[in-house]
Design brief:
about 600 residues, Jelly Rolls, 4 domains
């Protein structure tokens, strides 16, 4: 076979999808499931690898997507032999058995599989070696669907698929067929690694790629050139214009920390040795601090410094600037500081403009009017300060989408930090986590048992989020394509841990187990690219602990094996520790980008 057939034709401007060696479910004998030819060929070997599943490297949640698969396996001899090929929900990559979405079986039963159940026998003919199967997924139509083709002939009719899901292509060895194997073409190679010789090839609707058969009208290759751009896309903005992690060394007197690249609205700093997690923001004022690893009320001090156009200035306050102490600072840009001193005041800052009223800022009012806000609709981040009334109420967050993570702290009282995350449990609107504790998710109506909307989040009559007369701060986020992601994964207890797709190479990841009730080590683990510039990422700090960098989540001992890898399109868990990967437990995460996957071609 010519060497050229082993090369995937990527470039600095475009990478085609492949199978992902880091994203797979291996139920049996992983040693006989191998990828080759630029990760487009899969070989399951023979025997003892039934139900092993491998997934594609680029997920999709919209668009019209097309790919092809050449089956090199010998013809199956029974209904229980063959491959199950199709699409799988990204949120359920750890599930056992067949793809839990939509697929076809190449076994002699010729089954359609839907959500894990074979539903009917709907195509005729005998599968044969060198059959080419094609898949057309249309998520843009009013009735999203997938169509299956065999040798360019439609099999049955189109199948309606679930909306509001993110999918990956998937392939599973079904049964004990001898040495099942095949090759995908996501647009990079219509010869299928030299196994065919097409007389004519075809591009997608954008003129990209090369396919053995003509793709359906409007279909696109699954490649980075066809991925959406970073959503803000304002003045060539990149993720670093909205989030940046920086390290510095304290000097005990005063100094300016530059290199952030923007004026931050939220600065969260932590000594890399023992010391408090300090949170300051532009809505309360940079001289006011909160501590995430404790319940303390807000305190102020002029020596905490100010925010500047390229970072922040520090005074002599020891919590943020002790002499010869190394620090990390995580910095976020929101809508800029509100103006609380002019007459009239302009307490509502949105996308860099200050407004006198909510209506002037085009923010819909709730049953509580915030006293100040900073809102960035491009970055999906807002800071909201309000006064509690100890009754069920709604608070405007100012964003264009439903918040997926909300962190709330009572400023005037010693109360726990309260956290909402949209995937922390099966019914998150009834539950909560505490940022300052290790506990699992608990049922309590802090959110008035009401899910947040694209306009408001709701609060019940509870002191931590709504004590009468107390000032309270809320930090609200939702995912932004190519910049931020808030989601969950299920641990497997293996050093070959879950691959978590984000759509970007992370600059920051925070992980918390939301299901483990033993709560021994399940702290809020934080990683970033400023302290760890390359894999492995093992310099873990914790939002709820003041301990040194690299300790266990219960603050007991130092540990270098609580690590993850930052990848071009997400992160890979490499540790078996309870902090990030206890078998069967649910973990939530928040992640911010260094570079969108569309442009992270060198990773």
């Amino acid at each position: 076979m010519a060497l050229t057939n082993h090369i995937v034709p990527d470039s600095p401007t475009n990478n085609f999808c492949t199978l992902n060696p880091l994203s797979r479910y291996l139920q049996n004998n992983s040693s006989v499931t191998t990828l080759s030819d630029g990760n487009v060929k899969i070989s399951f070997g023979s025997g003892s690898n039934v139900n092993n599943t491998v997934f594609s490297s680029i997920p999709f949640l919209s668009g019209k997507i097309y790919c092809e698969y050449l089956d090199l396996s010998s013809s199956p001899s029974s209904n229980s032999q063959g491959m199950i090929i199709g699409i799988h929900e990204l949120e359920n990559l750890g599930d056992s058995g067949e793809p839990n979405s939509f697929a076809i079986s190449t076994g002699s039963a010729r089954q359609l599989w839907s959500n894990g159940s074979n539903t009917n026998y709907w195509w005729t003919g005998t599968p044969a070696q060198n059959d080419i199967y094609s898949f057309f997924v249309d998520l843009d139509s009013s009735s999203p669907q997938i169509k299956f083709y065999r040798n360019n002939s439609l099999l049955g009719s189109s199948v309606t698929i679930t909306t509001d899901k993110t999918y990956v292509f998937s392939i599973m060895n079904y049964g004990w067929q001898s040495t099942p194997n095949g090759v995908y073409n996501f647009g990079q190679d219509p010869t299928f690694a030299g196994n065919t010789s097409p007389s004519t090839t075809y591009t997608d609707a954008s003129g990209i790629g090369a396919f053995y058969y003509p793709p359906p009208t409007g279909a696109l290759a699954l490649c980075t050139a066809n991925l959406p751009d970073f959503t803000p896309d304002v003045d060539d903005d990149v993720p670093q214009d909205y989030f940046k992690a920086v390290t510095y060394t304290g000097n005990g007197t005063s100094q300016s920390i530059t290199g952030v690249g923007f004026q931050p609205d939220l600065v969260w700093s932590k000594p890399r040795s023992s010391g408090f997690n300090i949170v300051r923001d532009s809505v309360r004022g940079s001289t006011y601090r909160l501590i995430t690893d404790n319940t303390y009320a807000e305190l102020s001090g002029s020596n905490y410094g100010t925010f500047s156009s390229n970072g922040f200035n520090l005074g002599s306050e020891g919590n943020v600037n002790s002499n010869n102490v190394n620090y990390i600072a995580w910095c976020w840009k929101s809508g800029g500081p509100p103006d609380l001193t002019s007459s009239p005041t302009k307490p509502f800052a949105k996308n860099g403009v200050q407004y006198e009223t909510l209506s002037a800022a085009n923010i819909t009012a709730g049953t509580i009017t915030p006293t100040a806000m900073s809102v960035n609709t491009d970055a999906g981040f807002s800071i909201v300060k309000y006064v509690g009334v100890f009754a069920n109420r709604t608070i405007p967050h100012g964003l264009n989408s439903v918040p997926e993570m909300i962190i709330v702290k009572n400023l005037d009282d010693s109360r726990d930090w309260v956290v909402y995350q949209h995937e922390m449990s099966s019914d998150p609107k009834t539950d909560h986590l505490h940022l300052n504790l290790t506990e699992a998710v608990d049922d309590y109506p802090f959110w008035n048992d009401t899910a947040p909307t694209s306009t408001f989040f709701s609060i019940g009559a509870y002191s931590a989020v709504n004590r009468d007369g107390d000032s309270i701060i809320a930090y609200c986020w939702h995912s932004v394509e190519g910049y931020s992601k808030f989601g969950s994964y299920t641990g497997n207890g293996s050093t070959d841990g879950p691959f978590v797709y984000c759509g970007f190479r992370p600059a920051f990841v925070m992980i918390k187990c939301s299901s483990d009730t033993t709560t021994t080590h399940t702290s809020w683990a934080m990683y970033d690219n400023a302290r760890d510039s390359s894999n492995v990422m093992n310099k873990v700090l914790y939002a709820n602990k003041s301990i040194n960098e690299g300790y266990r989540g219960d603050a007991s001992t130092a540990a270098t094996d609580i690590y993850i890898d930052f990848l071009s399109n997400g992160f890979k868990v490499r540790s078996t520790k309870e902090e990030v990967n206890d078998d069967g437990e649910t973990y939530i995460f928040m992640a911010f980008a260094e570079q969108p996957f569309k442009y992270a071609n060198a990773r």
